[in-house]
Amino acid sequence: MSAIMIEGSIVHYEALGRGRPIVFLHGWVGSWRYWIAAMQVASTSFRAYALDLFGFGDTARDPSKYSLEQQARLLDSFLNEMGIGKIAIVGHGLGALVGFQFIQQFPKSVDRIMAVSCPQSNEGVNARMKSASLTEMVEWLSTRSPESATALADATKADPQAITASISNIQADSLPMHEALVPSLFVYGQNDPAIIPPVDESQNPYSLTHQILLENIGHFPMIEDQIKFNRLMTDFMALDSGASPKELQLKEEWKRRVR
User: Fold this and answer.
1) Burial, 57: exposed, middle or buried (Cβ in 10 Å; 0-12, 13-18, 19+)?
2) For 35-43, what is the mean pLDDT?
3) CA-closest candidate to residue 59, choices 77, 85, 38, 86
4) Angle at which helices 68-82 and 94-105 pack, to 10 degrees?
5) Mind listing the pLDDT tens digit for each residue in 171-203?
6) What's the domain range around 134?
7) For residues 33 and 157, is the Cβ–Cβ distance under 8 A?
8) What CATH number did the domain enclosing 213 receive?
């Protein structure tokens, strides 16, 4: 286990590989652990980092640091402490929102973001996410397969306040406005019970964003279909810097529905 001190608090992270930096940020249910397979794939071309946000996994609990702004500050401090330059981000749920908050504050520090199961409005979050206990969330959102059980083993380590505080940001309509400052690929599971994807992308004014809906997938694409998810991630990361993720429409290696 690797850890550093940030603002007097222990922050746990793991790293694999060599190359350009890519940072994986987990969601409300789980920790860095469910990124292991994706990190292994990414590490063939990138230096892959995954960290536990404040209140999750093996990172310190501190209710004063649970807002999206404070979690984004954690990412900034982590990059500075580690001497990491411009990054790509793969974020899931909460991690995607933290990624966009970070982009809003430091747009020149991010090359692109893959936002998985990312709510784009308060209405995009199932009300149960705002009231269920950690145990209920795990039972509700996971596939209950052996792989899922292993990947989500750290889920119950989370401080419930860390979940409610970040979801309250959504309830207060204070989601970070990314405004397509960097190429942004939104990925949703067709069967995700927690996060509802936008119905129609046709009115999207931003040329640097694209949305993909993965068929027969729930809340955890990186666990439920590792091959499909990792191929999509690899192809997105292989695009030239600044290229629109809409170019992924030209590829058919993964089965998907494009809105």
Assistant:
1) buried
2) 97
3) 77
4) 70
5) 665 566 556 789 999 999 999 999 988 876 555
6) 2-258
7) no
8) 3.40.50.1820
